[in-house]
């Protein structure tokens, strides 16, 4: 037992006898860049969404404040041509039949794949965006609840679908 205590004392002694005095000067030089810490603090009701070449939105859940204007910037970050991998975002009313709207929209190539039959279900939408294109839209979700957003490019809506919850 005595031996262990002695060994510990020796080790501790070695550590504490290190070049502590030199360290003090070095610490003053190493400062944390404060600007980097608060870099990505999103504002309320300001949304950023990306569409990718693997047919996905980078985010599928948003929460916003009801009754206040929402600004959504959507960017197609892919490189594939618009004819094969175009993306849009359509925000639909709470009670919209998403499947019926998406199926009808497939036939509307000349209208950026948005069916006018469901115009009353559409709160807002971007145009169809090709690689590297971006668009910002503004809209207000008047009531609290869950609103679905989809990409209506043919075959995309099942994979490219998300929810904006207004509270
Ligand atoms: Cu898409």
Description of the structure:
- The protein is α/β, with parallel strands linked by helices.
- It has two domains: 2-37; 46-166, Immunoglobulin-like, CATH 2.60.40.
- The protein is built from five helices and eight strands, in the order H-H-H-E-E-E-H-E-H-E-E-E-E.
- The protein has helices at 2-16, 20-29, 34-37, 82-85, 98-105; strands at residues 46-51, 61-64, 69-76, 90-92, 122-125, 134-140, 145-150, 161-166.
- It has a five-stranded mixed beta sheet, with no helix packed on it. A three-stranded mixed beta sheet has the order 1-3-6, with no helix packed on it.
- The longest helix has 15 residues, at 2-16.
- The chain binds copper (II) ion.
- Residues 51, 87, 151, 153, 156, 160 line the site of copper (II) ion.
- The site of copper (II) ion has 6 residues, from loops.
Poorly predicted spans:
1-24, 35-41
Q: How many helices does DSSP assign? A: 5
Q: How many strands?
A: 8
Please report which band the strand proportion falls in: under 5%, 5-15%, 15-25%, 25-35%, 35-45% or over 45%.
Answer: 25-35%
CATH topology of the largest domain: Immunoglobulin-like
Mean pLDDT: 84
Query: What summary fits the major beta sheet?
Result: 5 strands, mixed
CATH architecture of the largest domain: Sandwich
User: In the CATH hierarchy, what is the class of the largest domain?
Assistant: Mainly Beta
Shape: globular
Helices and strands, in N-to-C order? HHHEEEHEHEEEE
Query: Which hetero ligands occur in this complex?
Result: copper (II) ion
* Number of structural domains: 2
